[in-house]
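[step 3/7] fold_predict: job queued, chain A
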Amino acid sequence: MKGAVQKPAGKPVKKVVLAYSGGLDTSVILKWLQTTYDCEVVTFTADIGQGEEVAPARKKAQMLGVKKIYIEDLREEFVRDFVFPMFRANALYEGTYLLGTSIARPLIAKRQIEIARETGADAVAHGATGKGNDQVRFELTYYALEPDIRVIAPWREWNLDSRTALIDFAEKHQIPIAKDKRGEAPFSTDANLLHISAEGKALEDPWEEPGEHVYSRSVAPEAAPDKPQYVEIEFAHGDAVAVDGKKLSPAKLLARLNEIGGAHGIGRVDLVENRFVGMKSRGVYETPGGTILYAAHRGIESITLDRSAAHLKDELMPRYAELVYNGFWFAPEREMLQAAIDKSQENVAGVVRLKCYKGHVRVVGRKSPRSLYSLAHVTFEADRGAYNQRDAEGFIKLNALRLRLARRGKR
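[step 4/7] structure written:
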């Protein structure tokens, strides 16, 4: 029978920690784990700034018989220990994606493992499907932190292969279903403090432009204010620490930039990306605050970072971004790259002024007590001996030597 319980093979599971949102999918998973594995389920709900009320997850978990329920506010840890280190690298996947979903998964998975240790659980479970990247990101983190943990991925095990099947299962087991969840969703979303993504269903045709109803964190650029807004962001050691002169915690700072960026239609991206599992997918992303932060960080680096260090960072960035996208946050190579990147940020301090207008943000000013910019050397006016222009002749000839020899060899 469709959705019938089949006892899994292998060693019995005693207790499992489930990444639980309280929505239809994870509520079905919760009950499915209880009935299929005949085990205790511990639920973990993380508030990482998704903008939805997480408290109802407790009530729903209690109704389903869960005794140990973890609901935690991880917004500050998320931005401080995951988003900010990634932004020090100026990470962009495939030149466009600011990795909003990718960077959230290792934090959730890390906390699941910690809870498993605290509660004596022998397994962890997630609600990611067998087609996407998230299953990889969750499980690579699980195994990196707890090599022998048992991982349960229901979407790869059960035969509930449609929304109708999920609803039937929920009704059979008296799991409450919100009225707006009974119909087929036009697209799926994932949100946190850094971004919100939309993909699937109505967005699967890459030729069709997304409707305005897809966007929830930003106004349409056409509807943004006709007057630009200027914002100043202060940096210390490569991390943003203040907006318009006001010191803010990491999470509050990013939330403030989200407000500014969203009001001006900044941070919308429509892209087709290459998933780690091998297929291409179309995604629509909104990253208003992150887009401003990215521009600002590159702006402060432009006057504080040595040329060769900056160029080397740009060479390393695609590899770093790929590691984050693919789920290797806790891999030694990502940590090695992070150490090099963090070293480069020691003198990345100062203030950047940006102009936000009609969906765009650009740097219009930058200053730093650690600035490497020398007006005495670059001025078109008399430099009073700061730079001897005659030195350029030997510099050019030395660099041209191999080119001249190569040309002579072709005669």
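[step 5/7] annotate
The chain is about 40% helix and 20% strand.
The first helix runs from residue 24 to 37.
exit 0
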